[in-house]
Design brief:
Order of helices and strands: HHHHHEHEHHEEEHEHHHHHHHH
Distance between the termini: 35 Å
Low-confidence stretches: none
CATH architecture: Orthogonal Bundle
Structural class: alpha/beta
Strand order of the largest sheet: 1-4-5-3
Oligomer: single chain
Helix content: 40-55%
Length: 353
């Protein structure tokens, strides 16, 4: 990839206009435009100023791994402005290029695994439930609650990343070179919402819709069934209920890692409660202001760990230097080590010493 293209990508990912970057880097906007369009090449001193202003390392501009991304499918509240969409797209391109580069360094490229097409066809919402069961069976997950959703996805060849995103961004799905799926979620989202978004995006990846069934509703049904399998919920709730207890829902939220409101929908889908009872329960949530912020302690969000583990592996095997690790992590190495040590209660990290 040409140097000018890299400069434009980094500027877009940072949400900077030509003028804003020019002011930060103390380089004229006209000069930067020439660099981006391949009409001139920045001198080393200028490139250093650009890298600092853009928050990237010099290595970023000469990265050899390049990815082609499919058109992303977003899970968000409303359509994103084009500038925000481009910003997110380039943040993700940078993340995935670093991810693939780390895989290449350690020689551990995971392959995506899913059942045959016949087991993934969806013509009704009940079919979406069956597809979720087939995926669980194919991945040998049984019917127990999923402890870490991100780990399960990464173990089965789906790249998972997280970015700051924007206000209206929740998650998106796309493919690298039309074959490797990627799910990217927003950072610092409560765990039950994050896990549902991940399962929802998995539904988009694996389901093959064969009728006019609504794709979003089918993905919702898939996500609920994947996170809270019917057999487990029927054992916990019973086959028929006149009402569900709020605290009971809270306890099951922590068991399955799925919101109380999603559990209510699951109970309705499985005919444990009627539509009327579902409405009654949601009236309670509305009256108490619980629709956006459910009561009780929240679930902790998950973070992708495979890329981090591969970077530590490459460092311990002396395949990369600290400066190279910093470029692959996408942040200052010493700060990264401090954050890791703090997160793990002061645990000593040899490669950070």
């Amino acid at each position: 990839m040409e140097l000018g293209t890299r400069i434009r990508m980094a500027r877009t990912a940072g949400g900077l206009s030509l003028r804003a970057l020019a002011e930060k880097a103390e380089v004229s906007a006209m000069a930067i435009s020439k660099y981006e369009n391949g009409k001139d090449i920045p001198r080393s001193g200028v490139l250093i100023r650009l890298s600092k202003a853009l928050g990237v390392s010099i290595d970023y501009f000469y990265r050899t791994v390049e990815v082609n991304l499919s058109r992303p499918m977003y899970r968000n509240h409303e359509a994103l402005p084009k500038k925000e969409e481009n910003e997110i797209h380039e943040q993700i391109r940078d993340l995935i290029e670093r991810y693939l580069e780390v895989e290449e360094i350690v020689g551990d490229r995971q392959q995506f695994r899913m059942p045959s097409k016949e087991k993934r066809r969806v013509a009704t919402f009940d079919d979406a439930e069956m597809v979720a069961q087939h995926i669980r069976s194919y991945w040998k997950l049984g019917i127990d609650p999923i402890e870490n959703m991100i780990d399960i996805l990464e173990q089965n060849g789906i790249k998972v990343g997280e970015i700051d995103g924007t206000k209206n961004f929740d998650a998106l799905t796309f493919f690298i070179d039309e074959k490797t799926p990627v799910i990217v979620v927003k950072k610092n989202v409560v765990g039950d919402r994050q896990r549902f978004s991940l399962a929802h995006e998995l539904g988009h990846i694996v389901m093959i819709l064969e009728s006019d069934v609504d794709e979003e509703d089918a993905a919702h049904r898939f996500a609920g069934a994947f996170l809270a399998p019917a057999s487990g919920l029927l054992a916990d709730f019973g086959s028929k209920r006149k009402m569900l207890d709020i605290y009971e829902l809270h306890l099951l939220k922590h068991k399955y890692g799925i919101s109380m409101q999603a559990l209510i929908f699951r109970a309705k889908d499985l005919h444990i409660i009627t539509n009327a009872k579902l409405s009654d329960l949601f009236d309670v949530f509305r009256e108490n202001g619980w629709r956006e912020n459910e009561p009780g302690d929240h679930l902790k969000s998950e973070s992708p760990s495979r890329m981090k583990r591969m970077i530590f592996r490459a460092l311990s095997e002396h395949k990369i230097t600290r400066s190279r690790a910093a470029e692959l992590i996408g942040t200052d190495f010493d700060q990264f080590c401090m954050n890791e040590t703090r997160e793990h209660n002061g645990f000593p990290i040899p490669v950070c010493d």
